[in-house]
Amino acid sequence: MTGPDINIPERAVLHILVLDFDTLECEETSASGFSSRGCRVLTNAHKELGKTIGLRLAGFDQMIKGRVREILDSEILVSFEFANSTIVEKRRERRRKVAIPALVSGRGSQDGVRCEIVDASQSGCRLASRRLEKLPKNIQLQIPGLDMPVTGEIVWRSPEFAGVKLIWQFSNGQEFNQKRLRPPDLPEKTGMQEKRDASGFGVRRKSAPN
Predict the structure, then answer these.
(1) pTM to 2 decimals?
(2) List of domains in the chain
Protein backbone atom coordinates (compact mmCIF):
# COMPACT_ATOMS: atom_id res chain seq x y z
CA MET A 1 0.00 0.00 0.00
CA THR A 2 1.35 3.43 -0.95
CA GLY A 3 1.60 5.87 1.93
CA PRO A 4 0.78 9.59 1.96
CA ASP A 5 2.95 12.15 0.21
CA ILE A 6 5.88 13.12 2.43
CA ASN A 7 6.55 16.86 2.34
CA ILE A 8 10.06 16.51 3.75
CA PRO A 9 13.13 17.35 1.64
CA GLU A 10 14.76 14.18 0.36
CA ARG A 11 18.15 14.99 1.89
CA ALA A 12 16.82 16.35 5.18
CA VAL A 13 18.14 15.11 8.52
CA LEU A 14 15.53 15.53 11.27
CA HIS A 15 15.73 15.34 15.02
CA ILE A 16 13.43 12.57 16.25
CA LEU A 17 12.51 10.73 19.41
CA VAL A 18 12.23 6.94 19.24
CA LEU A 19 9.96 5.33 21.84
CA ASP A 20 10.49 1.68 22.74
CA PHE A 21 7.03 0.35 23.58
CA ASP A 22 8.49 -2.63 25.44
CA THR A 23 10.39 -0.55 28.00
CA LEU A 24 8.92 2.97 27.56
CA GLU A 25 12.46 4.27 27.11
CA CYS A 26 12.90 7.22 24.77
CA GLU A 27 15.97 7.85 22.63
CA GLU A 28 16.78 11.17 20.99
CA THR A 29 18.47 10.67 17.64
CA SER A 30 18.09 11.64 13.96
CA ALA A 31 16.50 10.26 10.82
CA SER A 32 16.93 10.71 7.07
CA GLY A 33 15.86 9.24 3.74
CA PHE A 34 12.16 10.02 4.19
CA SER A 35 9.63 8.63 1.74
CA SER A 36 5.97 7.68 1.84
CA ARG A 37 7.04 4.24 3.06
CA GLY A 38 9.50 5.02 5.84
CA CYS A 39 12.90 6.40 6.79
CA ARG A 40 16.38 5.57 8.11
CA VAL A 41 17.02 5.99 11.85
CA LEU A 42 20.46 6.44 13.37
CA THR A 43 20.57 4.08 16.37
CA ASN A 44 22.36 1.12 17.90
CA ALA A 45 19.18 0.02 19.67
CA HIS A 46 15.95 -1.62 18.43
CA LYS A 47 17.92 -4.28 16.56
CA GLU A 48 14.98 -6.66 16.22
CA LEU A 49 13.25 -7.25 12.90
CA GLY A 50 9.54 -6.59 13.06
CA LYS A 51 9.79 -4.59 16.27
CA THR A 52 7.16 -1.85 16.64
CA ILE A 53 8.45 1.56 17.71
CA GLY A 54 7.07 5.08 17.97
CA LEU A 55 8.66 7.94 16.04
CA ARG A 56 8.21 11.53 17.18
CA LEU A 57 9.35 14.00 14.51
CA ALA A 58 10.19 17.57 15.47
CA GLY A 59 7.65 19.86 13.82
CA PHE A 60 4.78 17.35 13.74
CA ASP A 61 2.08 16.96 16.37
CA GLN A 62 1.49 13.20 16.40
CA MET A 63 3.63 10.14 16.90
CA ILE A 64 4.17 7.83 13.93
CA LYS A 65 3.88 4.08 14.28
CA GLY A 66 6.86 2.34 12.70
CA ARG A 67 8.21 -1.16 12.28
CA VAL A 68 11.85 -2.23 11.92
CA ARG A 69 12.27 -3.80 8.48
CA GLU A 70 16.05 -3.89 8.09
CA ILE A 71 19.04 -3.68 10.44
CA LEU A 72 22.30 -2.00 9.40
CA ASP A 73 25.53 -1.34 11.29
CA SER A 74 24.52 1.95 12.93
CA GLU A 75 21.05 2.44 11.48
CA ILE A 76 17.71 0.74 11.12
CA LEU A 77 15.27 1.05 8.24
CA VAL A 78 11.77 1.71 9.50
CA SER A 79 8.48 1.27 7.66
CA PHE A 80 5.63 3.66 8.50
CA GLU A 81 2.27 2.11 9.36
CA PHE A 82 -0.44 4.70 8.78
CA ALA A 83 -3.44 2.48 8.00
CA ASN A 84 -4.35 1.78 11.63
CA SER A 85 -3.97 4.69 14.03
CA THR A 86 -4.19 2.50 17.13
CA ILE A 87 -1.51 -0.04 18.05
CA VAL A 88 -2.78 -3.63 18.00
CA GLU A 89 -0.30 -6.43 18.55
CA LYS A 90 -1.25 -10.11 18.38
CA ARG A 91 2.04 -11.48 19.68
CA ARG A 92 2.45 -12.59 23.26
CA GLU A 93 3.74 -9.74 25.36
CA ARG A 94 6.47 -9.95 27.94
CA ARG A 95 6.46 -7.66 30.94
CA ARG A 96 9.82 -6.01 31.49
CA LYS A 97 10.95 -4.71 34.86
CA VAL A 98 11.78 -1.00 34.64
CA ALA A 99 12.23 1.93 36.99
CA ILE A 100 10.85 5.00 35.22
CA PRO A 101 9.70 8.11 37.11
CA ALA A 102 6.40 9.45 35.77
CA LEU A 103 4.03 12.29 36.54
CA VAL A 104 0.50 10.89 36.31
CA SER A 105 -2.67 12.99 36.23
CA GLY A 106 -6.21 13.01 34.94
CA ARG A 107 -6.48 13.69 31.23
CA GLY A 108 -6.07 17.39 30.59
CA SER A 109 -5.22 18.08 34.23
CA GLN A 110 -2.13 19.91 35.46
CA ASP A 111 -2.27 18.38 38.95
CA GLY A 112 -0.43 15.08 39.04
CA VAL A 113 0.93 12.34 41.27
CA ARG A 114 4.57 11.34 41.07
CA CYS A 115 4.76 7.58 40.47
CA GLU A 116 7.28 5.01 39.31
CA ILE A 117 6.61 2.68 36.40
CA VAL A 118 7.90 -0.68 37.68
CA ASP A 119 7.08 -2.91 34.71
CA ALA A 120 6.00 -2.27 31.15
CA SER A 121 4.84 -3.89 27.92
CA GLN A 122 3.37 -2.57 24.69
CA SER A 123 -0.19 -2.60 25.99
CA GLY A 124 0.25 -1.59 29.62
CA CYS A 125 2.35 -0.88 32.67
CA ARG A 126 2.27 -1.03 36.46
CA LEU A 127 2.55 2.09 38.60
CA ALA A 128 3.90 2.28 42.13
CA SER A 129 2.89 5.09 44.50
CA ARG A 130 1.20 5.60 47.86
CA ARG A 131 -1.08 8.27 46.39
CA LEU A 132 -2.83 6.26 43.71
CA GLU A 133 -6.26 6.83 45.27
CA LYS A 134 -6.02 10.45 44.06
CA LEU A 135 -5.98 9.39 40.41
CA PRO A 136 -9.11 9.00 38.24
CA LYS A 137 -9.67 6.02 35.96
CA ASN A 138 -8.70 7.90 32.78
CA ILE A 139 -5.17 9.25 33.07
CA GLN A 140 -2.18 10.62 31.21
CA LEU A 141 1.48 9.88 31.94
CA GLN A 142 4.43 12.19 31.43
CA ILE A 143 7.57 10.07 31.06
CA PRO A 144 11.19 11.25 30.79
CA GLY A 145 12.41 12.10 27.31
CA LEU A 146 8.98 12.22 25.67
CA ASP A 147 7.49 15.66 25.05
CA MET A 148 3.88 14.51 24.84
CA PRO A 149 1.63 12.75 27.40
CA VAL A 150 0.78 9.06 27.07
CA THR A 151 -2.92 8.27 27.50
CA GLY A 152 -3.92 5.41 29.79
CA GLU A 153 -6.72 3.79 31.76
CA ILE A 154 -6.39 2.34 35.25
CA VAL A 155 -7.84 -1.19 35.16
CA TRP A 156 -6.98 -2.21 38.74
CA ARG A 157 -5.39 -0.68 41.80
CA SER A 158 -4.22 -1.57 45.30
CA PRO A 159 -2.91 0.71 48.08
CA GLU A 160 0.53 0.95 46.44
CA PHE A 161 0.19 -0.32 42.84
CA ALA A 162 -2.04 0.20 39.81
CA GLY A 163 -2.33 -1.61 36.50
CA VAL A 164 -2.65 0.69 33.49
CA LYS A 165 -3.82 -0.02 29.96
CA LEU A 166 -1.87 2.22 27.57
CA ILE A 167 -3.84 3.70 24.68
CA TRP A 168 -1.53 4.59 21.81
CA GLN A 169 -2.87 6.89 19.11
CA PHE A 170 -0.81 7.46 15.99
CA SER A 171 -0.69 9.74 12.98
CA ASN A 172 -2.75 8.62 9.99
CA GLY A 173 -0.34 10.43 7.69
CA GLN A 174 -2.54 13.43 6.92
CA GLU A 175 -0.04 15.79 8.55
CA PHE A 176 2.46 14.93 5.82
CA ASN A 177 0.02 16.02 3.14
CA GLN A 178 -0.88 19.27 4.85
CA LYS A 179 2.48 20.50 6.05
CA ARG A 180 5.75 21.31 4.36
CA LEU A 181 8.45 20.92 6.97
CA ARG A 182 11.87 22.49 6.79
CA PRO A 183 14.17 21.15 9.49
CA PRO A 184 15.06 23.93 11.97
CA ASP A 185 18.72 25.00 11.83
CA LEU A 186 19.83 21.79 10.12
CA PRO A 187 21.65 21.73 6.76
CA GLU A 188 20.26 19.39 4.17
CA LYS A 189 22.95 16.74 3.89
CA THR A 190 23.18 13.01 4.10
CA GLY A 191 25.59 12.86 7.05
CA MET A 192 23.88 12.27 10.40
CA GLN A 193 26.60 13.43 12.78
CA GLU A 194 25.28 16.98 13.16
CA LYS A 195 25.05 17.98 16.83
CA ARG A 196 23.26 20.97 18.33
CA ASP A 197 22.89 22.43 21.80
CA ALA A 198 19.14 21.79 21.75
CA SER A 199 16.85 19.55 19.73
CA GLY A 200 13.51 20.32 18.14
CA PHE A 201 11.93 19.00 21.33
CA GLY A 202 13.50 21.55 23.68
CA VAL A 203 15.87 18.96 25.15
CA ARG A 204 19.04 20.66 26.26
CA ARG A 205 22.33 18.96 25.49
CA LYS A 206 25.55 19.34 27.42
CA SER A 207 27.91 21.75 25.75
CA ALA A 208 31.11 20.24 24.37
CA PRO A 209 34.29 21.40 26.10
CA ASN A 210 36.32 24.05 24.30
Answers:
(1) 0.77
(2) 14-86+170-178 (2.40.10.220), 96-167 (2.40.10.220)
